[in-house]
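FAQ

Q: What does a record look like?
A: Structure on top, sequence underneath. For example:
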């Protein structure tokens, strides 16, 4: 039984073997491809946005935090690892622009830089997802380093991603290396999420202010601990962000203070309010920050980005 089975439980070991189409440019390049070998300044900070619950604001956070970080001059790559592809759709990436996707990268049929698509937000790119990802878990079942597929792919990625021959503004944006990678996960603790956790430096957990929030959180934190012991000792908890906070609802307040008393300063001071403009934006293929930068939700995501940058600076300082 390999490490992934320890994390996911014995069921993972009983998955049927399949003829796995792991071939192409990335095949056979996994040995020694370990980001830990690179100097830390050479690497973007990799954050996995995860919570096994659906509808808690993972994708919304990946899109809008990514946009806010790009707006203040960071260069950001979102990796869409959810077969639903909501991050891709929400950033206006049509099906015809997803010729190479996260699936191709995971099975080793493509290099990650060939999957990168620019969004309309300068400085923000995405590796889009397609429904093919639904099959990835089975297809990877018998592949070596199946929980390290994303990590290995990122280790081989040039720091700048792909140089594109487009407008001047975009060339200026792409001249810089990525500083942040945000991985958007499916609502489950499956092999895709495990790949994201194995590739990441830290996990960012959006937590909806509702009654069962804490219960789900302890299961998630147990998984993080297991990934830490068996797959990625570096994995840290970057932060918990409270989402869909409703001022008029007493329960929101109670959940927020419960979470704070359990997790202390891991919980961001910035709280994302429930805001209708945020939920409207994806249907226009735009981040809320572009759709209506003055709405309360957009302002909250800008504040979250500022708080995150501050937190990251403090971390780097204490590590130096
Ligand atoms: N702060 C918010 N206010 C209002 N609606 C929100 C907010 N955050 C997310 N939503 C909406 O809630 C739904 C679920 O959010 P989403 O980010 O897709 O969750 P997840 O990725 O965790 O499944 C989406 O329709 C989204 O537009
Ligand atoms: Mg989502």
């Amino acid at each position: 039984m390999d490490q992934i089975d320890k994390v996911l439980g014995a069921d993972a070991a009983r998955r049927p073997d399949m003829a796995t189409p792991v071939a192409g440019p990335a095949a056979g390049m996994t040995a020694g491809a370990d980001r830990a070998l690179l100097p830390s300044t050479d690497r973007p900070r990799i954050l996995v946005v995860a919570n096994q619950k659906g509808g808690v604001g993972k994708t919304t956070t990946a899109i809008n935090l990514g946009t806010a970080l790009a707006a203040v001059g960071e260069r950001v790559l979102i990796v869409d690892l959810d077969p639903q592809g909501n991050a891709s759709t929400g950033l206006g990436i049509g099906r015809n622009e997803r010729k190479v996707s996260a699936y191709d990268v995971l099975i080793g049929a493509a290099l990650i830089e060939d999957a990168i698509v620019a969004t309309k937000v300068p400085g923000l790119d995405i590796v889009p997802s397609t429904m093919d990802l639904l099959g990835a878990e089975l297809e990877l079942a018998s592949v070596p380093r199946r929980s390290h597929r994303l990590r290995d792919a990122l280790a081989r990625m040039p720091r700048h991603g792909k140089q594109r021959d487009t407008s001047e503004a975009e060339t200026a944006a792409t001249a810089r290396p990525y500083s942040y990678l945000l991985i958007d996960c499916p609502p489950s603790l499956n092999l895709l999420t495990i790949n994201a956790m194995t590739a990441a430096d830290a996990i960012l957990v959006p937590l909806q202010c509702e009654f069962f929030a804490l219960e789900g959180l302890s299961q998630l934190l147990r998984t993080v601990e297991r990934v830490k012991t068996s797959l990625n000792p570096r994995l840290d908890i970057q932060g918990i962000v409270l989402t869909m906070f409703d001022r008029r609802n007493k329960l929101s307040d109670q959940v927020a203070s419960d979470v704070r008393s359990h997790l202390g300063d891991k919980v961001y001071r910035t709280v994302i309010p429930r805001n209708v403009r945020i939920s409207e934006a994806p249907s226009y293929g735009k981040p809320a920050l572009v759709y209506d930068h003055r709405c309360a939700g957009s302002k909250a995501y800008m504040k979250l980005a500022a708080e995150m940058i501050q937190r990251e600076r403090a971390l780097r300082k204490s590590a130096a």
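Q: Is there anything notable about this one?
A: The longest strand covers residues 236-243.
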